[in-house]
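Try it yourself: sequence plus magnesium ion, in.
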Amino acid sequence: MRHLGTVCKKIAISAVQTAVILIGITLVTFFILHISPVNPAEIYLMGNSGNVGQVSQEAIEEQEKKMGLDKPFIVQYASWLNNVAHGDLGKSMTTSKPVKDEIAEHAVPTAVLTAVSLLITVLISVPLGIYCAVKKDRALDNIVRIFSFLGISMPSFFISLVLLWIFCLKLQVLPVIAQRSPKGMILPAAVLIIQCSSKYIRQVRAVVLEQLNQEYVMGAAARGVSERDILFKHVLKNSAVPILTWCGMYFGIMLGGASVIETIFSWDGLGKLAVESVTTLDYYMIQGFVLWTAVVFLIVNFAVDVAGDIIDPRVKRGRI
Amino acid sequence: MLDIKNLSVSYGKTRVVRNLSLKVNTGEIVCIVGESGCGKSTALKSVLMLDKNASISGGEILFDNKDITKLKTEEIRHLRGSEIAMIFQNSYLSMNPTKTIGHLFYETVKVHNKKAKKNQCLEKAEEIMKKLRLWETERIFSSYPFELSGGMCQRIAIAAAMMNDPKLILADEPTSALDVTAQAEVIRLLKYVKDNYNTSMLIVTHNMGVVANLSDKAAVMYGGSIAEFGDTWDIINNPAHPYTKALIKAVPEMNGKVPEGIEGLPPEFSDEKGGCPFAPRCYSAKDICYKNSPEKHVVSKEHIVYCNFC
Ligand SMILES: Nc1ncnc2c1ncn2[C@@H]1O[C@H](COP(=O)(O)OP(=O)(O)O)[C@@H](O)[C@H]1O
Ligand SMILES: [Mg+2]
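Structure, out:
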């Protein structure tokens, strides 16, 4: 393979970068949790006894010792990092299950939601974005533009509530809560698709339009290349890298778990897990989640990078 | 072979090319000169109907007695790059940065002949390039445009233009973006092509050296129309139109003298009032010049001028 050398070099460089970024990210989260005024030991005990204000100071101190919270910040972080290096992400403070298992378990529904939503988002956005660029300012482009702006400007909780109201309350065609069933996935997927497509269509349109305005387009036309070939063999090939990059970004965002959407629709994925861990200040759970998101993004970034190398000779030959 | 008659081209409502008439005979090189913005590129691109924003609002473009403005899309596509080739100012920008030069040569033939084989196309390209004194063809074929110099890309563009043995080459300021040695080389190549292939050319240029060295005839354009048209030497030695005279005076010489410019600004295209477009800047303009369109005067057999007082 011609690009093997470049790819190997990239892997080496990004392995070092990845390590630095991961340590940075986890250190910052750990620190933010550390300075937050809430005491996880207290929350843990309150959660167990179910009574507020009935937890004695001694019990809290004992619990702190158990959780290792009495040690200095840097010692806490170092021992966590050491465990992570040995594949141990710690135990959830609320459920006492290993963080690894919790994440693995909740990753499944999120992954299913991601796969379906991303696939449909790409199938909608890429062709529509290309079409709108080619038929700029025509009827369909204007209609799509309006819907995109609506989709971009509405927050996800609002879209979620509107869809809930229409399909579950008014039309009553979908159940309000249908955990882990295909029917229950329709609405959360729809919200994700609406949100991401609104942006993605515009991004695809912009990059294709930029390419269409390049001088090589007229250059190719002057050599007798048909409009169709100019679009498919020249313009789209040159637009592929940014289009792919955004696709990777949406993949990362979705796989990180859409907290608001998952919570509203009780979709028991990582997003919902993250919200729950934050409300209970579940240190190791939150750390595990941050680590997961970071790793997902780093892998996606890397994959997109390598794909770009292979597609665009300017990257391959070190010009960009 | 190419006969443009009363051509008008507009961007939206603005008429940028106005009643332009121009003739290129077989084996002849015609140069169009004129200030920036006077509509030279627009006129040139309209020969291949290349600009989607521009619309032909009058006149005809006869190529081998067919009116190009009336052809169907697919018929025009078949003219482009095969019977009429075009060379741009920045060739390296007019080539796709993600395709190799080899692909450029191959595609140029392939789009007109589906059966074309890549190695045969490259053999032909090599033959042309050797004639144009472009060596290292293997390296060039596997290079991307951004890996080559501007002058090299321009020479490659000339070679690519020859791939389908065109009858006519259109060139829009082919030397403007180049340094002096590369300019000389491009001029030499164009001359070689004309002498050896009898290809006609219509060349837009700012460079009086190109006009003097290369062209058989020169057309001076002002405000979207032809001001003067004739044999190159006739135009240079006996310019008739006040604008042509001023233009020739404005050419810098290598004697340290600063050339005279032309006072005033080029015309706006927004107005459609009659009269000579050059009148506001013309020393010898009279009232009639602002009212009536300039009349066509025949100076000699191959020399015409559009001016009321020539
Ligand atoms: N795509 C376009 N849309 C609108 N106006 C244009 C466009 N291209 C050129 N023009 C205008 O047309 C006039 C002639 O331009 P052009 O033919 O490029 O001149 P030249 O090649 O002689 O410098 C200029 O006033 C320019 O502003
Ligand atoms: Mg121009």
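One thing you can check immediately is this: Chain B is about 30% helix and 25% strand.
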